[in-house]
Amino acid sequence: MSQKTEFLKPILSSELITTLNAAIGERMLILAGSCTAFFDGRIKSTLELGERILIIKKDLSILMHGVSGVKPLNWQKPKQGPISFLKEKNELVMHTKRKKTEEELWIRFRSIDFVILWAGSDFSSLEIYGDESDLVKYLVEHPSIIEKDLQILSTEFPTDVGYVDIKALDNKKKLLIIEVKKRKTTPSDAFQLKRYKDYFEKIEKKKVRAMLIAPSFPDKVRKYLENNDLESKEIDWKTIFPTISREKNVKIDDFF
User: Fold this and answer.
1) Range list of H helices, the chain
2) What tens digit of pLDDT does each residue of 103-150 get?
3) Which of 12, 24, 214, 228 falls 20 to 30 Å from 247 in CA-CA distance?
4) Nearest Cα to 151, choosing from 173, 177, 124?
5) In a 10 Å sphere around its CB, with 0-12 CB exposed, 13-18 middle and 19+ buried, how is residue 139 labelled?
């Protein structure tokens, strides 16, 4: 068995309490059993007896989960206040008090099914990719996917009517405005492309090309594009995303 993982006897004793308190902030603590919870602060919450899992991470964040659902029943952000275990009336009690707000959380275990101390480590952050900005980035790095001899001028180009995904010159040095969509296009996407085209033709005082890139086009959208001298190109992002890698990691909080 890995030295990183230690299984403690689920017997309420002074030895167990001492070991748990010594492990706080050093290892991840995982306890399962039948417990209640009470939060006392600006609001109060009570959780009646039920079988749950308590997780205390190295950064002192606290999560208590029930037997179903994604969200924790009780939780506390990292390093909000000291955490301690004690024994009261044959119950194992976890207590924490937030320093700034004086709010307190009490979790009382009537019975314990198992206790695990885990000395795991993780120095990487969650990398998320696959949004439209990734698709634009990939197309800019591989412009021949759009068309041969395409010269990229800029991305996210600001205009009075919005930001153009890609501004480029075609092989005849004609200005090409490109809007990229990861999903199936809608009429509003086509209308926006028309606004871009009108804007640049007014500024440049000459005809410009405008192209909408997406995985698919409904007949209504395609017809509007054709009737307004706008171009369309189908590019399946699902064949591209597996090859994309962000240079900068994005945290899960940023994504949501």
Assistant:
1) 14-23, 132-141, 187-204, 219-227, 252-255
2) 999 999 999 999 999 998 887 765 555 567 888 888 999 999 999 999
3) 214
4) 173
5) buried
